[in-house]
Amino acid sequence: MTTRLRTRVAIVGAGPAGLLLSHLLHRDGIESIVIDNRSRDEIESTIRAGILEQGTVDLLVASGASERVLVDGHRHEGIDLHFDDAAHRIDLTELTGRAVWLYPQHEVLRDLLARRSADGGEVRFGWSATAVRDADSATPVVVGTDADGAPFEITADVLVGADGSRSVVRKAINGTDAPGYFREYPFAWLGILCEAPPSAPELIYSASDEGFALISQRSETVQRMYLQCDPELDHTTMSDAEIWDGLQRRVGGTRLIEGRIFQRDVLRFRSFVARGLSRGNVFLLGDAAHTVPPTGAKGMNLAVADVVLLHAALREQAAGGGRGLLDGYAAAASERIWRAQHFSWWMTSMLHATPEESAFDRQRRFGELRSVAGSRAGSTFLAEAYTGWPLTFTL
Ligand code: PHB
C-alpha cells in the first residue's frame, strides 16, 4: 500500500532550513509537509555550530520562531584572535553596529519543532526520501519509505531539498557525475563538549605553533572546544589529558578551566557548492546546496539566508506575483553563498597550518593575521562577514 499525499510545498529535511521555511510559509497561509529520515530525538540532539548572526536572530524573533534565543542565548560583541602569544580583540559591535549570538543549533531546532507542533504543522519523522520523479513537471514528486517501511509518494507544486550534504533531491537537479564545486582541506577539528564554566568571556580563535584551537561555549556549565587534527585521527586514541594539554598549549596566556569531556567528534573540512540550485519547481537549500568549513560558523546562517530568498519567492508567487523571484532564486542565493564560501575559506586558511606549509607561507600567514587585527579596514572586513551581511526579510 503506497501512501499518496498532495501538498503545496514538500520539504525534504527537518533541519533548520526546512523547518524555518515551513514555519514562514505557514505564517503566509501556504501549506507544506516536511519529512525527515531521522527521529525527532535525533534531530534535537544534533551537535552543530553555535553562532547565530544578528540577522538570523532578528528573523527567528520577528517571525515568532524563537523567543528563547533572547533569554537563553548570549550576545557576543567581540572575538579574540590569538597569535604571536597575545590576544587581539576584534570589536564586532564597534566596527559594524552588530553582534552575534551564542545559541546552539539544537536549541534552534527545538524551538522550531515546538513552533511547528503548536501551529499544527505537518512534520513526518522517520520518512526517508529515496528519489524525485517528474522534476521537470509542474508537480514534482518525492518518493520513499515511511516510518513503518511502507512506500509513500508526495506530489507538490514545489519540492524543496533541505536534506543536508547527502541530499537525495540534489541528484534530481545535478545528477551524480559533476554535482558541484568542491574543495577538501588536509586538516580537521577534534571537537569536544565538556562540563565546565566558560574559560573566557568571548570566543578565542588561536593560531599557534602547535596548530589551531577554538575555545567556544555552550552554556554556563557546558563548553565546546576544538583542536586542529589530522582528518584520519581516531579520537578514541587520545586521552583527556592529551586533549587538555593540546588545547592549553595553543592558547597560552588563557588558563582553560578543565572539566569532564563527555562528547568527542572529528569535523572534516570541506567547501562545496552544488552546480545547480534549482530546476523547474525543485529547489535546494542549506547544506544540500552548500557546505562550508566550520571556521566562522557560517553554515546555519547561510541556510537561513537561502530560506529568506525562497520564502520571499514563494510568497510573491502565492500572492499572484508570478514566478520571477522563483526563477531568480539560484542567482540571488549564489551571491551570498560565494561570499560566505570565500569568507569561510579565508578564515580557515589564515588560521590553520597545512601539513606541507612552507616557511614562507607560514610567515605570510602571520603577516596576514597582523594586517587584519592591526588595521581597522582589515578588522572591519572580518567583522562584517562574521556578524553577517545584511539580511532583508519581509514577514
Ligand atoms: C561552535 O561553537 O561550535 C563554533 C563557534 C564558532 C565557530 C565554529 C564553531 O567559528
From TrEMBL:
It comes from the Bacteria. GO terms for molecular function: FAD binding; oxidoreductase activity, acting on paired donors, with incorporation or reduction of molecular oxygen, NAD(P)H as one donor, and incorporation of one atom of oxygen. Keywords: FAD, Flavoprotein, Monooxygenase, Oxidoreductase. The keyword Lipid metabolism does not apply. Pfam families: FAD_binding_3. The keyword Transferase does not apply. PANTHER family: P-HYDROXYBENZOATE HYDROXYLASE (PTHR43004:SF3), TRK SYSTEM POTASSIUM UPTAKE PROTEIN (PTHR43004). This is 4-hydroxybenzoate 3-monooxygenase. It comes from Galbitalea soli.
